[in-house]
Every structure is written in C-alpha cells, then in structure tokens.
Amino acid sequence: MADRKMICVGTFAGAHGVRGEAKLRAFTEVPVDAVGYGPVSTEDGRRFTLKLVREAKPGLLVVRCPEIADREAAQALGGTKLFVPRDCLPPPDEDEFYYEDLVGLAAFTSDGSSFGRVKAVVNYGACDLLELMNVPGEKTAVLIPFTKEAVPQIDFAGGRITIDPPVYEDADGEDEAAT
C-alpha cells in the first residue's frame, strides 16, 4: 500500500449470522459506496471482494466476501480497516476534499509562523481535529479543532494550511494557546 495513496472506506465490525457474512462500518458519505470501488485492501496487504447483502442500519452494512470462509473468520476481522486507492474515488466537488489530502500539509499561523505539519485528521466524538506534529516548542502532537474559525484557509496548491489556534484559559485564569 505504500506506493499508492490509500483511503480508508470502512472497517469490518464483526460477524453477522453463521454463514461467514460480515458487518462493515462504512466511512463513505453514501454508505453503500464503500462496496462499489472494487476490491479493498487491509494495512497488512490482504484483499477482500465485498458484495453487499443489505444495509443493516445507517452506516452499517452486511457484506459477503469469498475470502471469508465462516463466522469465526468474519469475527476475527473485527476492527480491520479497509482501503482503496485514492484514484478509485471520484474527484471531490469544488470546495470539497478528502481528509487524507490534508495529511502532510504544512501549518502556519496567520502571521506566517510555522506551526508544524498535519499528521492526521481524527475524531474522538465531539468534532474533527487536526493532529499536528513538529509544532515549535511542543514535544508531542497538538490537536486543533478542524473548524473554519481555527483553520480559515487551506491551500492545496501551496501545500499549506493557515491556522488560528484557539486560546483557552488555564486553571490560574491565564490565557493559553491550544499548544
């Protein structure tokens, strides 16, 4: 997977029934699209040919794969991320992009100061966050809310984003940047 940019379209979510069908949590805007991009690959290089059985509930599909022999095999795949090559996905509309396209962009504050590089886009339940690495003065990664206020500009051609890190009040009542 290292030679082509890969996009995670879903993850196996365990077995469904007793005949080797699997649940698939889709990460695509239209859930059933996760099975429509051709074979999917795992991080360790295994390939699966997904066939939609039905949509179980919003975002959760039941799929059948010839590579999954039985219920135990389907259950063992729970949590396995599924990827397709970036070039298999449709181009985003104007003013849209895939989160994976943000990874690697250099981050700068509005005054032009370097503020690291985008390592990942994560979501722990409240909102999407940019994980920035190599932030000056920081030993660990920094998380910035991925909002229009905190990230007012994205320049793919220039390979950079502009950020305005939020300011929080610390326990002593002092203002402190999000670093």
Automatic annotation (TrEMBL):
Entries under Pfam families matching the protein: PRC_RimM, RimM
Isomerase recorded as keyword: no
Record's protein name: Ribosome maturation factor RimM
Domain annotation Ribosome maturation factor RimM PRC barrel: ranges: 100-166
HAMAP family registered for this protein in UniProt: Ribosome_mat_RimM (MF_00014)
Domain writeup: The PRC barrel domain binds ribosomal protein uS19.
Function noted in UniProt: An accessory protein needed during the final step in the assembly of 30S ribosomal subunit, possibly for assembly of the head region. Essential for efficient processing of 16S rRNA. May be needed both before and after RbfA during the maturation of 16S rRNA. It has affinity for free ribosomal 30S subunits but not for 70S ribosomes.
Domain RimM N-terminal: 8-87
SUPFAM superfamilies: PRC-barrel domain, Translation proteins
Similarity field: Belongs to the RimM family.
Organismal lineage: Bacteria, Pseudomonadati, Pseudomonadota, Alphaproteobacteria, Parvularculales
Keyword presence, Cytoplasm: yes
Swiss-Prot/TrEMBL keywords: Chaperone, Cytoplasm, Ribosome biogenesis, rRNA processing
Coiled-coil ranges (or none): none
Subunit structure: Binds ribosomal protein uS19.
NCBIfam families: 16S_RimM
Subcellular locations according to the entry: Cytoplasm
